[in-house]
Amino acid sequence: MPSRPALLPRRAFLRSTLAAGAAAALAPHVVWGASSEAPAAPKAGPGQKVKLACVGIGNRGREIIEALHATGLAEIVALCDTHLGAPHTESILKLFPDVPRFQDFRRMFDKMGDRIEAVSVGTPDFSHFPVTMLAMSLGKHVYVEKPMAHSYRQLELMMAAERRYKVAAQMGNQGHSAANYFQFKAWTEAGVIKNVTRITAFMNNSRRWHGLNVADYLPEQPVPASLDWDAWLASAAPHRYNVGYQNGDWRSWFDFGNGALGDWGAHIFDTAHEFLQLGLPTEIKASLEGYNPLIFPQASTLAFKFPARGALPPVELTWYDGQKNLPPLPENIGDAVVDPNIPPPSAGAKAPVKLPPGKVIYGEGLTFKGGSHATTLAMLPSEHARDIASRLPEVPKSPSNHFANFLLACQGREKTRSNFAVAGPLCQAMALGIIAQRVNADLAFDPATRRITNHRVANALLDGPPPRAEWEQFYRL
Length: 477
Prior knowledge:
By secondary structure, the protein is α/β, with parallel strands linked by helices. It contains 14 helices and 15 strands. It has a domain of 198 residues: Rossmann fold (3-Layer(aba) Sandwich). Helix 5 runs parallel beside helix 6 and helix 6 runs antiparallel to helix 13.
């Protein structure tokens, strides 16, 4: 293994990464270490608004900015998007007409890093990592949309950076600050939910890649003059521009997205993962329909086997996606649990919804059904359920929504509920499932060594693709 060179000072690092073709001196397979010059994370005073820079301002990024701004706790001080002026960025640009604008987040930090206290990251999945790592290394608090990152290794480095730089970090799975979170916590602590051995989770809405069949990457098209394509690619492998990768269509491709599991898993079984202390699976069994090495399958059934955790029994969590891949459900399940405030999946209206996203949790003596995001659990009818209904614990109300929770944490007044220590292992479990989809094989994973032990190609995919030369240093921040 090559020796690890010292990290450049922060300002020199920014200058070097902005230079075209800048090269790092380390091979990309190395798990890199930290710089010793971690700046202290700034905290706005309780009466001061958090100075917030926003990276990714269209589509979901726009919704994040609007929600953070609506709390009244943030002052938007910078806007960054690789496609400034495109239709999907117009509303945010009009809302903040006098705020400085950038197309490259590296230039934003270089020009005004000393005026930024926190950053929101609403970019495509594959570019969460470099923005978040640079922000944390500069002592900036970070709100990053789910899933946290694009590879198992990126997630490992982001969790380590959160500990190292002691910033407030929040992954954007809003249910972690709403009724589902507090109910699951209270019911688990009271023993209402106990000794769970099986979970069925499902997302059967239509997705962008359903009906799509490709034999190669998309053909090259002229890059729009208003788009910084190189900055859009960030640390991803080189790709020729095609509009078919833009505005959410990146979700279809293994190189850019995380499929239905990465997109919705964090909204469906995140609280079960945290409060049942699931950690990382040791086995994943994959059954796919319409496998393609470039885009996500037309349907996937993934059975994650989580080992016993102390006195807690082993759990098998089975994930179902695909329009016709409906899960087996209890006969007495009744109507689906749906929150009318939850937006439908993006571009997911191609076919009628047969079953809204949700879950079934099988515990000792009780079976629970639930939906996604903030929807609460309901006990399925049984003698035990009738007996316990009158003795359910009180569920506290959330003191703040997910966006306010982050900004209050930036001020030192709360702790983030979906910090990287909580969200990282959840996303790593999903990342292992996505690798199983990508290689179309069952996997055996050793959490102690963090290796896939039965599949050489799958094990290599834990690292993700090697970054382009000028992006390698982001893995050493």
